[in-house]
Every structure is written in C-alpha cells, then in structure tokens.
Amino acid sequence: MNLLIDVPVLADNGAAATGSPIGALLPFLLIGAAFYFLIIRPQRKRQAEQQSMLRRVSEGDEVVTIGGFHGRIVALEEDTMELELAPGVIVTMARTAISRALTEPAPVTFDDDDDLDEFDDDEFDFDNDDDIVIGDVDGDNDANRDS
C-alpha cells in the first residue's frame, strides 16, 4: 500500500482519463471572480470615494487625518494643506493625509408657524422637596418606613 505514488486512472480502453481542460480551469475562474467581486471591486469603490472627497474639500472644512488629528483647513495647495489643529497651531501636511471630512449638521431653524409655547414649564415642579423612593410603587414614600 503505497499512498505517495500518483497512479493515473485508466479508462475502459486502457488510455489515461484526462477530462476537459475547461473543467480543470473552472475552479480557478470561480475563485478569481469571487476575489474580484469581494475584494478588488469594493476597494476600487472606496478609493474612488476617497479621491472624490479629496477633490471636494476646501478651506474652512473640518477634517480628520489618517493620524487621528482633527482640524480645520486654512490653506490648500495641489499636494499639501495647512491644517489648524488648535488656535494658533498650524501644521503643513500632505493633502492625501485626509482620512475623512467632518460635515457640520444643518442648523436647526424654526418657522414662525411652529408653536413652541405648547410646553408649559409651570406644569413641572422641579423644586419639590419630596424624595423619590426607588421601588415605591404607589408613590406614598412608604418604602423607607419602619413597620
């Protein structure tokens, strides 16, 4: 019983069975297609989004760098930028060091038609000296009384 020797399988006519070359290549083609759709294509999409973001940033934008610095862009050049990390602290970095741009939330505006006075502050008495007792179901503060 020799398991290390590769013995060709003989067909009925005595010749070695070879099979279709397409059948031998099919697993490799399937692995290549899966590799493309699961790894290469999403990476290209992320890379295109990153390049688009780098083109859109402008002076005054808040950004985060790949090193984790948060700052505001004060000057942009073709390959570099000046980033203000704190008031008076300006560093020059590569433009490609921007990891993501931070977008500020839209300001909240109220129309004159909005009825903001519906909430009555007098309804709630926050100066009440009654202690809140945890576990007091009926609200009469009898949980702390000695029986």
TrEMBL record:
Pfam families: YajC (PF02699). It is a single-pass membrane protein. Keywords: Cell membrane, Membrane, Protein transport, Translocation, Transmembrane, Transmembrane helix, Transport. The chain crosses the membrane at residues 20-40. Residues 110-141 have a biased composition (Acidic residues). One of its GO terms (biological process) is protein transport. Residues 107-147 are annotated as: Disordered. InterPro entries: Preprotein_translocase_YajC. GO terms for cellular component: plasma membrane. It is found in: Cell membrane. Belongs to the YajC family. PANTHER family: SEC TRANSLOCON ACCESSORY COMPLEX SUBUNIT YAJC (PTHR33909:SF1). This is Preprotein translocase subunit YajC. The lineage of its organism: Bacteria, Bacillati, Actinomycetota, Nitriliruptoria, Euzebyales.
